[in-house]
Write a structure and sequence with these properties.
Layout lengths: L26 H13 L17 H13 L4 E5 L2 H11 L7 E4 L6 H7 L4 E4 L11 H7 L4 E7 L8 H10 L3 E5 L7 E2 L2 E2 L6 E5 L12 E5 L2 H11 L6 H7 L17 H32 L5 E2 L14 E5 L1 H4 L3 H10 L5 E2 L9 H5 L21 H10 E4 L8 H16 L1 H4 L2
Bound molecules: pyridoxal-5'-phosphate.
Pyridoxal-5'-phosphate binds next to helix 3 and helix 4.
């Protein structure tokens, strides 16, 4: 058979089969979890005043290491980044009738955490080079009801955190960083996730450090940390003791939930934290190699790197110029996928186009809100263009893949482009 024939036309695929899902779990994790399982103490939490309100020894040990690693005062372990985001919004006292500015090009929880706190997500468009929230559009979306900005450090690259912090300070807003995709990325010499008032990390199985499911909230503000701990563990039951113990803190009553981290999860997460630098260096090295190789194609733009930031390549993002390539993005991506190469088109649908925002916008506002939020198509044109036409992502830089995989990726691009006249729909 002709080796140059694209698999989508019946040729032999470059990779025999799809790459297996990531697995970075080793003996270290197995041993750490086994040790905890043998104690029989799988959670140290109790929802009552006293030391157990803050969880067991594994959770607290993990939190101490996490805070030390990222140079923050407080780390609060949770059972996901989704719940950590929900706690972050609640810990900042944001609720009904408040607006929070968020980007639409992100995992849904970035906006859902606003809704679950009965506040209103207001979408600001992204920057077409970094794909992160655009500070200029953030400014345009500020109203008297705006209370916070959530910046997502998307694909592993910090947002324009300096500009966003400045805007937040000028308008007396809080800055929350959804850092789920960018652990160990740096901005201006600091870890991303630690520059805003609150930062959130994810430990879900797709992320660079992973323990299946899990999340961490970080902050340097003692009161915010405490409120997050209250939200994590049914805070309403300890409010009376808290309020009595320390009158200066002026605790406002709040309700909590159950966002608690188990002991085995904390032990496992600590082992992953120890591997973070190694896993990150692996990604960065492969990404740099991929960027070098992509220079030969004028129709692919590799990630733009903000000179103040480092990129940790949770996903490697490319802009695809269909005119220059002579083939549509979607036809190109389908053909690459048929070669069993890991690539996808568009990333995520702009989240305001999900049915909850389109069909039930009244569900996206507090009961007494002065207007129904509107989320028309066209709201964030740059995001829609990236989603519909230009953006391609690949996770081919992850551990334990190698330069050989990158070489196959490049070979795949050449193979598809050489056959483009047969592929164009
Ligand atoms: C993965 C992710 C989340 C949610 O993380 P979970 O731990 O799965 O809840 C939130 N935001 C972004 C940007 C993510 O990539």
């Amino acid at each position: 058979m002709d080796d140059q024939m694209p698999a989508i036309l019946g040729g032999k695929p470059l990779l025999k089969e799809k790459l297996p899902p990531p697995n970075n779990i080793g003996d270290e994790e197995v041993n750490a979890v086994t040790k905890v399982l043998r104690t029989g103490m799988l959670s140290g939490f109790l929802a009552m005043a006293g030391p157990q309100f803050l969880g067991g020894s594994e959770v607290r040990n993990f939190e101490d290491h996490f805070a030390e690693k990222f140079r923050v005062k407080y780390a609060v372990g949770m059972n996901s980044a989704t719940t950590a985001l929900e706690a972050a919004v609640g810990a900042l006292g944001i609720g009904a009738d408040d607006e929070v500015i968020v980007p639409p090009y992100t995992m849904c929880a970035t906006a859902t955490c606003v809704l679950t706190n009965n506040a209103i997500p207001v979408f600001a468009d992204i920057d077409e080079n970094t794909f992160n929230i655009d500070p200029k559009d953030v400014k345009r979306k500020i109203t008297e009801r705006t209370k916070a900005i959530i910046a997502v450090n998307l694909f592993g690259q910090p947002a324009a955190l300096d500009e966003l912090k400045k805007i937040a300070d000028e308008h007396n807003l809080k800055l929350i960083e959804d850092n789920a995709q960018a652990p160990a990325a740096m901005f201006d010499g600091k870890f991303s996730g630690t520059i805003g008032d609150v930062g959130v990390f994810s430990l879900n199985r797709h992320k660079t450090m992973q323990s299946g499911e899990g999340g961490v909230l970080v902050t340097n503000d003692k009161r915010v940390a405490l409120r997050a701990q209250l939200i994590r563990n049914h805070g309403e039951v300890v409010m009376d003791q808290m309020m009595e113990q320390d009158k200066n803190q002026q605790y406002e009553p709040l309700i909590g939930s159950n966002f608690r981290m188990t002991e085995p999860l904390a032990a496992l997460s600590l082992e992953q934290l120890k591997k973070l630098d190694f896993l990150t260096e692996h990604r960065v090295a492969l990404a740099n190699y991929l960027t070098e190789q992509l220079a030969q194609f004028d129709f692919i733009t590799p990630p733009f790197i903000n000179p103040k930031a480092t990129h940790v390549y949770y996903l490697y993002s490319m802009k695809f110029d269909a005119k220059k390539a002579g083939i549509s993005r979607d036809a190109f991506v389908k053909a690459m996928q048929a070669e069993n190469l890991p690539v996808s088109a568009g990333y995520i649908k702009p989240i305001y186009l999900y049915p909850i925002y389109q069909e039930k916008p009244h569900k996206c506002s507090g009961p007494f809100y002065y207007r129904k939020p509107e989320y028309p198509k066209g709201l964030c044109p740059v995001t829609e263009r990236m989603y519909e036409k230009e953006l391609i992502t690949t996770d081919i830089c992850r551990y334990p893949l190698t330069k050989d995989h990158i070489d196959l990726f490049i070979q795949g691009i050449k193979k598809i482009i050489n056959a483009k006249s047969k592929l164009q729909q």
